[in-house]
Automatic annotation (TrEMBL):
<feature type="domain" description="Manganese/iron superoxide dismutase C-terminal">
    <location>
        <begin position="89"/>
        <end position="191"/>
    </location>
</feature>
<dbReference type="GO" id="GO:0046872">
    <property type="term" value="F:metal ion binding"/>
</dbReference>
<dbReference type="InterPro" id="IPR019831">
    <property type="entry name" value="Mn/Fe_SOD_N"/>
</dbReference>
<comment type="similarity">
    <text>Belongs to the iron/manganese superoxide dismutase family.</text>
</comment>
<dbReference type="GO" id="GO:0004784">
    <property type="term" value="F:superoxide dismutase activity"/>
</dbReference>
<dbReference type="Pfam" id="PF02777">
    <property type="entry name" value="Sod_Fe_C"/>
</dbReference>
<keyword id="KW-0560">Oxidoreductase</keyword>
<dbReference type="Pfam" id="PF00081">
    <property type="entry name" value="Sod_Fe_N"/>
</dbReference>
<dbReference type="InterPro" id="IPR019833">
    <property type="entry name" value="Mn/Fe_SOD_BS"/>
</dbReference>
<dbReference type="InterPro" id="IPR050265">
    <property type="entry name" value="Fe/Mn_Superoxide_Dismutase"/>
</dbReference>
<feature type="domain" description="Manganese/iron superoxide dismutase N-terminal">
    <location>
        <begin position="2"/>
        <end position="83"/>
    </location>
</feature>
<protein>
    <recommendedName>
        <fullName>superoxide dismutase</fullName>
        <ecNumber>1.15.1.1</ecNumber>
    </recommendedName>
</protein>
<keyword id="KW-0479">Metal-binding</keyword>
<dbReference type="InterPro" id="IPR019832">
    <property type="entry name" value="Mn/Fe_SOD_C"/>
</dbReference>
<dbReference type="InterPro" id="IPR001189">
    <property type="entry name" value="Mn/Fe_SOD"/>
</dbReference>
<dbReference type="InterPro" id="IPR036314">
    <property type="entry name" value="SOD_C_sf"/>
</dbReference>
<dbReference type="InterPro" id="IPR036324">
    <property type="entry name" value="Mn/Fe_SOD_N_sf"/>
</dbReference>
Length: 205
């Protein structure tokens, strides 16, 4: 088994009242586990295809791996991005948010608009663009679509209905508003700090 469900660093109830224990339990143990299982199944099927030199089903297997591995990666980052103790962005991250978005408040407004503007299922994200050497905000459709290669996710918000419907029903705006109370800015700042200022050279050689 290549992929495993990560353990959370907090109890399922730790994020209440912003996210209920019931949602956290279902989201982590059922939904995330399903992506882990799917990614492993796709990997094993591709290994069998290589051994038998039978690649007739490869297009489907590649899509299955991209979708399920995307779900595994996204959720693994998402859990780390959350904390019952939100804190504040580091001075370096705060300065970068102001530099690239005008102010922290303008960054939040942009991020909220991206989250609420998703049609169907997907994610809002803050990422480091390794080619442009800058922060960007984007919308990720489903688990894997619309994210540029070379973008390094720093902050992710799950906008699939399974992430919020039991608590907020169809009022997505209340869910996004509550999200800001549980953002683990220490984790986001750490991720930002680990991004190399020379990351552009890694892409261009």
């Amino acid at each position: 088994m290549n992929y495993k469900l990560p353990e959370l660093k907090y109890d399922y109830s730790a994020l209440e009242p912003h996210i209920s224990a019931r949602i956290m339990e279902l989201h982590h143990s059922k939904h995330h586990q399903a992506y882990v299982t799917g990614a492993n199944a796709a990997s094993e099927a591709m290994a069998e295809a290589r051994e038998t030199n039978n690649f007739s089903n490869l297009p489907k297997l590649q899509k299955d791996l991209a979708f399920n591995l995307g779900g595994h990666v996204n959720h693994s980052i998402f859990w780390e991005n959350l904390s019952p103790h939100s804190g504040e962005p580091s001075s370096e991250l705060a300065a970068a948010l102001t530099e690239y978005f005008g102010s922290f408040e303008m960054f939040k407004n942009h991020f909220v608009a991206a989250a609420l503007g998703i049609q169907g299922s997907g994610w809002a994200y803050l990422a480091w663009d390794a080619l442009g050497n800058r922060l960007i905000i984007g919308q990720l459709y489903d688990q894997q679509g619309n994210l540029a290669m070379g973008s390094i996710p720093l902050l992710m918000l799950d906008m699939w209905e399974h992430a919020f419907y039991l608590d907020y029903q169809n009022v997505k705006a209340d869910y996004v508003k509550a999200f800001w109370n549980i953002v683990n800015w220490e984790d986001v700042s750490r991720r930002f700090g680990s991004v190399s200022v020379n990351s552009r050279s890694l892409l261009l050689g």
